[in-house]
Write a structure and sequence with these properties.
Distance between the termini: 73 Å
Number of helices: 1
Helix content: under 10%
Strand content: over 45%
Largest sheet: 10 strands, antiparallel
Shape: globular
Number of strands: 32
Radius of gyration: 25 Å
Length: about 400
């Protein structure tokens, strides 16, 4: 009898250890996109959503093109860019560039309340702050097939043309996730490290997604969850280290060579960084049970406010429209550093100091400082800054700007 009791105690202890060590025992799935898809036929599907074969999480980006540019003509009547003409350092006048390119829209899914399809490539987003933004085309996010892990039906794939509206909501704590989220530490060729959630080739973000490549024995597809590390060998291939200890050379697909679309890292210091193949050296995966911020952690956006100082020392304070385009703190500041693209929410930005024609020094609220270049937001391609005070409205051309400090 005593022997039987010991056996049952041992079995119970082993079961407890197995439960604690189970991969999904304490999974935090609040980071998955969740919502209700309403179709033109009147049906609804509710559950975890995946946008095409890519976006699955609230911190992923929705991309499109803006139809309306309400501040376009506020810098000058026809919406052109103003720059100063100087002779021996003295301002003698201004010149205007009347061209105006298209404007890309980018936001995190967590900042959106709903997506309303108007037909074809036309749609309207409702943001958490109540803003309604008309968009058209601009990326494969518009027109994508939406996969719903419906609570009752299981996996349902809904074509874009059949969708009337998508309404987002907080992911229930007990929802069953399709897989774990990829997380790791990426090392660049310059030995800089970025840590966070991973989106490989702008697609693979789950353990069940596959890395494709050619080996000396033929084509191979490997589940990302089985990989310990990926190390670039050259422009045409990479070493893939598996969790079981094997090391394989994969080549000649856009997953493992220079044709890849890049590697996204959701680094908490900067927001999102995009690392191209030429800058990439190695990625070491880590096993984590969390999936990122939940929907309720994305608060309604606020308008940008601050003070602009021009290069002659004049200061202008009030509501800010940056690049005659961005006016809310959920919008993103974009720029490059050593070929790595940064996508930083304005809510993280403390100040932007123009350094020259092609670069700016960006100070973040967390103390990080990064010099960015080449992007429209931080170079001479910037359309200028509109400052709307209580009794005046001032436009500061980018060439005249010295410092923008945000409240």
């Amino acid at each position: 009898m005593k022997q039987l009791s010991r056996i049952w105690i041992l079995i119970a202890a082993m079961a407890a250890v197995a439960l604690v060590g189970a991969p999904d025992a304490a999974a935090d799935n609040r980071g998955f996109i969740y919502g209700t898809v309403e179709t033109e036929s009147g049906n609804t599907y509710r559950g975890i959503l995946r946008w095409g074969t890519e976006e699955s999480f609230w911190d992923d980006h929705f991309n499109s093109s803006k139809k309306d540019l309400p501040y376009r003509k506020r810098g000058r009547g026809d919406g052109g860019r103003r720059s100063r003409i100087k002779v021996f350092g003295v301002t003698v006048g201004y010149r205007w560039d009347d061209s105006w390119g298209g404007r890309q829209f980018i936001s995190r899914f967590g900042d959106i309340t709903s997506v309303e399809i108007r037909g074809g490539d036309d749609l309207e987003l409702v943001m958490k702050g109540g803003e309604r933004i008309a968009l058209e085309g601009g990326s494969n996010d518009v027109g994508a097939r939406i996969t719903v892990l419906d609570e009752s039906l299981g996996e349902v794939k809904v074509e874009w043309k059949r969708i009337e509206r998508i309404v987002f909501s907080a992911t229930p704590p007990d929802v069953k996730a399709p897989a774990r989220r990829l997380y790791g530490v990426l090392t660049t060729e310059d030995d800089e490290k970025f840590e966070g959630y991973i989106q490989w080739d702008i697609q693979e973000c789950l353990w069940t997604d596959e890395l494709d490549g050619e080996t000396e024995d033929g084509d191979l597809s490997i589940e990302m969850g089985k990989i310990r590390a990926i190390e670039k060998r050259n422009r045409h291939g990479a070493w893939v280290e598996l969790k079981d200890g094997r090391r394989l050379l994969l080549e000649d697909t856009n997953d493992v060579d220079h044709t890849t679309d890049g590697i996204f890292v959701e680094d908490r210091r900067y927001g999102r960084v995009e690392v191209p193949w030429d800058a990439f050296a190695r990625l070491d995966f880590q096993e984590v049970a969390h999936t990122g911020p939940g929907y309720d952690e994305y608060k309604p956006g606020r308008g940008l406010r601050g003070t602009v100082t021009d290069d002659e020392g004049r200061k202008y304070g009030g509501e800010i429209v940056f690049d005659l385009d961005e006016s809310r703190d959920w919008e993103l500041l974009n720029g490059e550093r050593f070929d790595i693209e940064y996508h930083i929410p304005f809510s993280m930005v403390r100040s932007i100091e123009r350094l020259g024609r092609d670069s700016s020094l960006v100070r973040l609220r967390n103390g990080e400082i990064v010099e960015l270049e080449d992007g429209t937001d931080v170079s001479d391609d910037n359309a200028g800054v509109l400052v709307m005070g209580p009794e005046s409205e001032d436009f500061v051309a980018w060439e005249d700007l010295k410092l923008l400090e945000l409240e």
